[in-house]
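Regression test attached.
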Amino acid sequence: MAKSMHYNGTDGCPPDLLIQISFPSLPDRLRLVRPIVREGAYACGFGCQDVDDIVLAIDEACANVIEHAYAWRQDAYAWRQDAEIIINIFRIERGIHIQVRDFAPPVSLRDIRPRDPKELAPGGLGTHFIRSIMDDTRFLRAPEDNGNILELTKRTMVEA
Amino acid sequence: MTDIVTEELGKLVVRLQGEVDLDCSPVVRKLLLECVGWERDVIVDLSAVDYIDSSGIASLVVALQAANRAGAAGGRTDRPPIRDDANRGGEKCGLTSGAMRPRLR
């Protein structure tokens, strides 16, 4: 049974949960997650370029969780091994809806601001990528302040 | 991710291959900073990179900044062709159309 993360769908259509992934918050797990997200995006009807973009957006979202939400010694790249990330991929009418859930202390919205990519500096690019790729991004506190939920939605192009 | 460092005509050429993500970008960053420290021209060849995320790009930026700080003539970026099937992470900050060359004189 999938761990509950409510989503009511869009346009009156019920959401179709394609897959739920749960994995330890470790950098080397990202390469295992990317192919699953890729197949999920294809299953939602996206073309190659959009699929690549969606994979990048979800990778960046998970990397932010690993590096910032859970990391306790970022400078030494010593990662927490007791932390979990859950990804839910929903097929919606003409698009994809993805939830990225962590169980880290609540993150302040001020800490996840994107920066201008023209500025030559490391950091903040991941959030910029996520917002430029996805149509909707919503950052929520999980119930009882037990973590954070990032909701990402992208719609397929509809011909006029 | 694999890397190969060669010396060609007095320049250090760092060829990266595969996926550059949060897992291996600290290694890339360390390698590039080490190369910059050798006080030669450093060329980073990304033509065999299939995937690069923001942490990989951050490693390139950190190396370029180090080259800028250390080099009398400063650093610069050139943009030779890169594989068409590489992901678009670099493109979103102006890198997909070419590899970055932190250059130190």
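Expected vs. actual: identical. The mean pLDDT of chain A is 85.
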